């Protein structure tokens, strides 16, 4: 088991867009294994490589009875139906707030061997796909909260024992869904 330390809110790697994977090699397979082991150890629904300090477009997921990993993922909406519900993040431990996401998405990418894969998700799996892909773009779910909820969230985070006083910044998502929110 290779459980790694998860980077916490305030770490610059979480705000840096990740690079496309070009080498589907042993190093990538080790990264996927580390993501799996860490995600399972922490009890998360998903974990992106930047959360381990690795700037590559890779994430793992295990929710709604589906589990796997995606390399260089790109997702699209299956329809315009939205969901609002609690969302948390292993990089912001101990908190969750209601966040708006699309209800139904499909993600396309590759597995760790470079073979194309497609994952269709609704509800929690759709939320996870969007959340983890945001991580790969340097976007945190805090950026998607409405102004009032974000203000409350930041106040709560500032009181957390793990918070190091980093100045929060908002990031514009490259996905057309909701912009910064």
UniProtKB/TrEMBL annotation:
Protein purpose: Removes the formyl group from the N-terminal Met of newly synthesized proteins. Requires at least a dipeptide for an efficient rate of reaction. N-terminal L-methionine is a prerequisite for activity but the enzyme has broad specificity at other positions.
Keyword Hydrolase: yes
Annotated Gene3D superfamilies: Peptide deformylase
Similarity comment: family membership: Belongs to the polypeptide deformylase family.
Protein name: Peptide deformylase
Cofactor mode of binding and number, as noted: Binds 1 Fe(2+) ion.
Residues holding Fe cation: 89, 131, 135
UniProt cofactor(s): Fe(2+)
Source organism of the structure: Actinokineospora globicatena
HAMAP family linked: Pep_deformylase
Record PANTHER family: PEPTIDE DEFORMYLASE, PEPTIDE DEFORMYLASE, MITOCHONDRIAL
NCBIfam families linked: pept_deformyl, PRK00150.1-3
Molecular function, one GO term: peptide deformylase activity
Keywords: Hydrolase, Iron, Metal-binding, Protein biosynthesis
Catalytic activity of the protein: N-terminal N-formyl-L-methionyl-[peptide] + H2O = N-terminal L-methionyl-[peptide] + formate
Domain of life: Bacteria
Active site residues according to the UniProt entry: 132
EC number: 3.5.1.88
Top-level EC class: hydrolase
One GO process term, biological-process aspect: translation
InterPro entries on file: Peptide_deformylase (IPR023635), Peptide_deformylase_sf (IPR036821)
């Amino acid at each position: 088991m290779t459980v790694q330390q998860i980077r916490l809110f305030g770490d610059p790697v979480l705000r840096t867009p990740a690079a496309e994977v070009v080498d589907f090699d042993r190093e990538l397979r080790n990264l996927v294994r580390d993501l799996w082991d860490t995600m399972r150890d922490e009890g998360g629904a998903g974990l992106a490589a930047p959360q381990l300090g690795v700037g590559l477009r890779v994430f793992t997921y295990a929710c709604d009875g589906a589990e796997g990993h995606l390399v260089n993922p790109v997702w699209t909406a299956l329809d315009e139906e939205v969901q609002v519900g609690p969302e948390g993040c292993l990089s912001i431990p101990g908190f969750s707030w209601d966040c708006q996401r699309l209800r139904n998405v499909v993600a396309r990418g590759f597995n760790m061997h470079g073979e194309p894969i497609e994952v269709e998700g609704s509800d929690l799996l759709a939320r996870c796909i969007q959340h983890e892909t945001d991580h790969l773009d340097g976007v945190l779910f805090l950026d998607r909260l409405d102004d009032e909820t974000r203000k409350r969230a930041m106040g709560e985070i500032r009181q957390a024992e793990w918070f190091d006083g980093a100045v929060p910044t908002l990031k514009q998502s490259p996905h057309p869904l909701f912009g910064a929110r």
